[in-house]
Amino acid sequence: MKCIIPEISWHNRDPVLSVDFQYSSKVTTDNKDEKFWRLATGGADSHVLIWHVEFNNGGISMTCVTELNRHQKAVNVVRFSPSGEILASGDDESVIILWKQKGNWDILPLPGDENSNKEQWSSWKVLRGHLEDVYDISWSPDSNMLVSGSVDNTAIVWDVNKGRSISILQDYKGFVQGVTWDPSNQYIATMSTDRQCRLIDLNTMKTIQRANKAKVPTSPGHRLEGKTIRLFHDDTFKSFFRRLTFTNDGLLLIVPSGIIEPEESTERPLNATIIFSRHNVKEPIMILPTLDEPTIAVRCCPVNYELRDDGPVSIIALPYRMIFAVATQKSVFLYDTQQLSPIAVVSNIHYTRLTDITWSMDGRILVVSSTDGYCSIIHFHDGELGTVYSANKPIEISKLNIDDNDEDKHIELKKTINKPYLFDIDNEAAMDVDAVTSLKNSGHSSISLTPVISELDPEQQRIHGSDNINKNKNIENKIIENPEEITEDIKLIYSEASNNECTTIIDKKDSVDEVTLVTAKSTSPKINLTSVLSAKTPRRVQLITLSSPKRTKNL
User: Fold this and answer.
1) Which of 333, 337, 332, 297 has the alpha carbon at shortest distance from 320?
2) What does the pLDDT average to over 303-323?
């Protein structure tokens, strides 16, 4: 695995608020034997940029091929349709613009401007109906409809072909910061600042289930066992986005901005990602703690992988593994549905908070955007995440009838979900990639990736997250002027349980540090769940926001 920060001023160094890969497969041009992925980015400079991402001599090259500048305010979200033909972008002016690529040139590019006009996209439709900023967009599987969430406390379902709204969902008491469309085309799920996750039936356009308070899944004898607590952050949540998602098969709904509030006010709350079954969003089936880092976005890898023979017994009885990335304010956690703990953690790669994440269709590229004006590209080697699942065995999903009290409707759910769990953080089962920033004597900034495999006692494990985030707070005021490209090879380690001790062997080279992880069986102490939720006096951390005056893009 390599983490690269290209030396690109993506949006005039203004915050990059959204990124998205095109859903279609890798494109081959007609005139050249070029293969690339198409990436769209939206920024606070009110521009939408489209890039070609290519593999080049073991690395990745980025080329900006077009610039879309019809928006008048910051672009908060960009999303390609599943067909790959349409790009939707929403801004702070309550406008959603649908873009289509033109097949042929209408005008010739100017001399010296071939790259920026390599592709030509035009505005196809403009959707107007929201009154305030549009924060999130999600497409229907057939690319005929989309849903958008806004600051005006509404979510609107649009007919793309007609260019008008089908339904306006107004059952909200706060900003709608995240929306997602069910792959089975039955539901829409939304997340808002009123601390509620709603499940909307597409046939009736009514909210049929909502998650606000619930009895969380815990280990036997835990102090929260059987108690009802709030599941999500309130409107003081320090992010504009709560981007939730369904898994590829639609069986699970993964929601960010989760929180487990303690019983005593002196105790520190636990941030988490909440996972529901599509059949019941009233109670979670899993909770993935992230300690001091609130989660803001979740995206599933488009590729399913075969189960590992040497891996643990999966909690969810599926014939394959699904991998999903969870973005917090400072880190990216990678999970799969077979292993309890994260399979990888990438942290401290940006100076300010993250905003969005996206996967390429082959699952080998993960792009992360940030308000510091830069994007990170995480590249996985072929087969590094596992063997691609190729069996053609789709899982049938029966529609849930909430008015039917018959226990038969839960048969499929019981076969799929074995047991609810509150996940422990097991640092020995994950690769923690900590990007430590240092300044060279020459005055240029460089970032080096250092693998961290912790063997801590329970008390150290509890505070490990906050120490890892705040250890570089003295350099957060420095703005990267010319960030250098940094790479490192990392071999992911999958652990069957918490009894694998990882030894790190580092072979230093001039430009690239090659890290090999060797696993050896041992008996290491398992983290006590109570210690993760134990009391600690909260402390205040100064919030730093980097911004720059709006500038006109030079064409």
Assistant:
1) 337
2) 89
Sequence-distant (6+) residues with CB within 8 A of 233 are: 195, 257, 258, 259, 294
Residues with Cβ within 8 Å of residue 552, at least 6 apart in sequence: none
Write the single-letter amino acid at 164: R
Mean pLDDT for 277-305 is 92
The candidate with the shortest Cα–Cα distance to 50, out of 61, 65, 69, 32, is 65
Only one residue has tokens 């967009």, namely 137
Summarised one tens digit per residue, pLDDT across range 501-524 is: 333 333 333 333 333 333 333 333
Helix (H, G, I), strand (E, B) or coil at 46: coil
Neighbours of 293 (CB within 10 A): 22
pLDDT at 26: 54
442: pLDDT strictly greater than 60: no
- The full 3-state SS of 328-355, as one line of letters, equals ECCEEEEEECCCCCCCEEEECCCCCCEE
In what helix (H) or strand (E) does residue 94 lie, and over which residues does it extend?
Answer: none
* Per-residue pLDDT at 496 exceeds 70: no
Using an 8 Å Cβ cutoff, are 50 and 63 in contact?
Answer: no
Residue 293's pLDDT is 87
- Give backbone dihedrals phi and psi of 220, rounded to 5 degrees, phi first: -60, 135
More confident residue, 500 or 184: 184
CA distance 20 to 302: 13
Question: 412 in helix, strand or coil?
Answer: helix
Burial of 528: CB neighbours in 10 Å, binned 0-12, 13-18, 19+: middle
Query: Which residues of 400-461 form beta strands (DSSP E)?
Result: 421-422, 431-439, 445-452
For residues 555 and 552, give the distance between their C-alpha atoms in angstroms, rounded to a whole number.
Answer: 9
Q: For residues 255 and 274, what is the distance between their CA atoms, to the nearest angstrom?
A: 5
pTM, two decimals, is 0.72
Residue from 195, 190, 192 nearest 208 by CA: 190
Mean pLDDT of the chain: 75
Query: Do the beta carbons of residue 260 and residue 214 sit within 8 Å?
Result: no
Residues 6+ apart with CB under 8 A from 309: none
Residue with token string 């910051």:
74
What is the pLDDT, as a whole number, of residue 311? 80
Please name the amino acid found at residue 449: L
**Superfamily assignment of 2-389+415-429 in CATH?**
YVTN repeat-like/Quinoprotein amine dehydrogenase (2.130.10.10)
Tell which residue, 368, 196, 161, has the closest CA to residue 281: 196
Q: At residue 14, what is the residue type?
A: D
Task: Tell me the helices (H) and strands (E) count for the chain, helix number first.
Answer: 3, 37
Q: Which residue, chain included where needed, has tokens 């003295």?
A: 474
Which residue type, as a one-letter code, is found at position 245?
A: T
Cα-based angle 538, 544, 546 (whole degrees, multiple of 5): 160
- Would you call 410 helix, strand, or coil by DSSP? helix
Q: Which residues pair with 78 in a beta bridge?
A: 89
- Which bin fits 257, alpha (ψ -120 to 50), beta or left (φ > 0)? left
Q: Return the sign of the alpha-carbon dihedral for residues 230, 432, 539, 460.
A: positive
Give the span between the Cα atoms of 162 and 125, in whole angstroms. Answer: 9
When mean pLDDT is compared across 184-198, 219-233, 512-526, the lowest value belongs to 512-526
